Amino acid sequence: MSLGSKIKELRNSNGMTQKELSEQLNVTAQAVSRWESDEVEPSVATIKQMATIFNVSTDELLGNETEPKVVEVEKIVEKPIVVEKPLVIEKDVVVEKPVTNRQAIGVCDYCKKPIYDDDNYHSGTHSGRGYHHDYLIHVECEKTKAEIYKKEQAEKNRNRLFLSIFLGLLAFGVAFGIFSFMALHSNTPGSYFGMGAAFGFAMFTMVSCFLLDNNFVFDLFCDIAGWSVRFPGIIFTADLDGLKFLIIMKLLFAVIGVIISILAFIFALLLSGLLSIFVYPFALYKNIKNKD
Questions:
Q1: DSSP letters for 257-289
Q2: Percent of the chain beyond pLDDT 90?
Q3: 3-state secondary structure of 125
């Protein structure tokens, strides 16, 4: 029987609802529901508190309870040959209690096997939006989990590298194509071809830096492109002319705001493209060298 099923069984046998149990444990009813459905594991302190509420041991709550062995010794009746009164010797029933040297303190977060107090394990906490979960994990399981994580990260880095090269070349082709089209309608096509190659290379390195996700170029682009201006309030008279003045100023501010946003985007694009030319070799080296 799983830990969640055991909690549900003991709660029902004690005539308690999930809400009543959650109030005694100072948690939400949703947390109790997730324990019983084996979505998450309660902390060690919570398991001990539930064992006290249900009046059971932590071993029984975790499903590790062992029943004592009862060894019955037959009563031996000895009758002496020459005795006026027979002598009867009776031996009592001997109960052999199990000797438990290992105490289960929780369940491994990775392999879901019991962890005993003399095992080699680590403890920690999983935290996120709306939940907080204490966990225990065997050291060997932790090493296995770390190796799997490294392999997954290496695979992600390879995918980022291939995607950055593909989309970077696509950005180069678009930029060079635009300048090439302009060169066909210009008296100085050579300069446009040169500008197209330079701008295309900048777009290639910038897109690649964005996708490699191991440098500051994308954050810089977002910070600059998000620049905006807070316009002051408008004072106007409460008549028709004042209303016209308010509408005109609002439209003017809106146009100015759009122009500033466009200029900020262009500046962010140019600056990120220029910096990415110098950052890209380091980002590429970091991706290839530090695969995990």
A1: HHHHHHHHHHHHHHHHHHHHHHHHHHHHHHHHH
A2: 17
A3: strand
Residue 19, Cβ neighbours under 10 Å: how many?
A: 10
User: Could you tell me whether strands 94-96 and 69-71 are parallel, antiparallel, or unpaired per DSSP bridges?
Assistant: antiparallel
Structure tokens at 30: 């949703």
> What structural domains does the chain harbor?
3-100 (1.10.260.40), 145-289 (no CATH)
Q: The tokens 């500008």 sit on which residue? A: 195
Q: How many angstroms separate the CA atoms of 137 and 114, rounded?
A: 10
The tens digit of pLDDT for each residue in 11-50 reads 888 888 888 888 888 888 888 888 888 888 888 888 888 8
Task: Decide: helix, strand or coil at residue 213.
Answer: coil
Nearest to 117 by CA among 67, 66, 64: 64
